[in-house]
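hey
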């Protein structure tokens, strides 16, 4: 077990915010987790689990012990008549994992292409894009309990997946380390093309039955056109969740703003496009200090270079206030704010 002190977290968060971890331990195998659990000092210390750092906003130095998950490995666990079961170590980069499964001939994750972060972080916030959520392709995961050091297997029901949510953001936050995730990739493969931008690609190209590779390429092109590449412009993807309101509340807003982008949900509630609400309040391209609202997508905040966590939080609060003032809706941050 390698223990490091006073580690800069700037290279380890995609928002490139400055913060220092008092103590950081790299987790490259389950044995490292157990060594932490059995350690006289670290065993009982409060802990923060860091994956690819693509869903955190660091506003201060991190006092809890940082466990940086770097477990590698990926393999086909089982070829079943109706599915491929594929497993990856929690520290594997998600975009590479998706591309690898496709290259192996095990499609099913193509709608989730290019989402920054690691395999282990994917279930934490139940990543989702273009009509597919992680929970739709999830089989099970292994996590090491930070109290007992025991490895436990969690099924989808035990993970309590919700919209950008799971038990790892709630009851199990900081209490267990995900070490491996298994995916169920259905056979035969079927494309998921219900998302409006994918429907548009089908119409434009005339390709009604695209291959998984074609869907992958479309998703990559859509993302590249409207979302910033974290390798070049520091960001954490969507900064707020899309709010869900009652039909009554939605009708009220439509009465005043007929063009509001909204999606009726099966349970009778309505999901509103937070990006539209923010853009409607005039925030696109606006900045506070070095933190800005991305000019091509108002739901994404970016670090122009040199932003502090405080500037990001100040910008986020100002956006929340103006959206609340105009629409009476409280936007909830999507990443974990530390
Ligand atoms: N819109 C605007 N102005 C904007 C931005 C968006 O009017 O500045 C409207 C447009 O009408 C657009 C609609 O909002 O069609 C929805 O935008 P988009 O398709 O980009 O989706 P989103 O709701 O903003 C969600 C996820 C994304 C995911 C996309 C595609 C959340 C919080 N975000 O964004 O996930 O990639 O759908 O499925 O649910 C992430 O979680 O970090 C993330 C990027």
């Amino acid at each position: 077990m390698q223990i490091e002190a006073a580690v800069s977290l700037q290279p380890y968060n995609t928002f490139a915010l400055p913060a220092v971890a008092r103590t950081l331990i790299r987790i490259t195998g389950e044995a490292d987790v157990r060594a932490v659990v059995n350690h006289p000092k670290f065993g009982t210390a409060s802990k923060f689990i860091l994956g690819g750092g693509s869903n955190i906003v660091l506003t201060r130095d991190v006092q809890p012990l940082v466990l940086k998950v770097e477990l590698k490995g990926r393999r086909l666990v089982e070829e079943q008549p109706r599915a491929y079961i594929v497993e990856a170590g929690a520290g594997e980069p998600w975009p590479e994992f998706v591309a690898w499964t496709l290259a192996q001939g095990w499609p099913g994750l193509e709608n989730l292409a290019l989402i920054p972060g690691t395999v282990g972080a994917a279930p934490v916030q139940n990543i989702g894009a273009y009509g597919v959520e992680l929970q739709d392709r999830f089989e099970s995961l292994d996590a090491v309990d930070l109290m007992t050091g025991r490895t436990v297997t969690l099924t989808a029901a035990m993970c309590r997946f919700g919209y950008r949510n799971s038990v790892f953001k709630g009851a199990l936050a900081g209490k267990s380390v995900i070490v491996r995730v298994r995916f169920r990739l259905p056979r035969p493969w079927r494309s998921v093309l219900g998302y409006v931008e994918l429907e548009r690609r089908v119409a434009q190209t005339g390709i009604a039955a695209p291959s998984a590779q074609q869907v992958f390429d479309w998703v990559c092109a859509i993302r590249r056109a409207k979302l910033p590449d974290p390798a070049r412009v520091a960001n954490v993807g969507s900064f707020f969740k899309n709010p869900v309101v009652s039909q009554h509340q939605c009708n009220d807003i439509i009465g005043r703003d007929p063009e509001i982008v909204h999606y009726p949900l099966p349970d009778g509630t309505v999901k509103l496009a937070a990006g539209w609400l923010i853009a409607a309040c005039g925030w696109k391209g606006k900045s506070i200090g070095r933190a800005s609202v991305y000019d091509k997508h108002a739901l994404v905040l970016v670090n122009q270079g040199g932003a502090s966590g405080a500037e990001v939080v100040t910008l986020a609060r100002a956006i929340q206030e103006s959206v609340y003032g105009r629409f009476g809706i409280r936007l909830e941050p999507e990443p974990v704010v530390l």
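Residues 322 and 328 are 9 Å apart (CA to CA). The first helix runs from residue 30 to 38.
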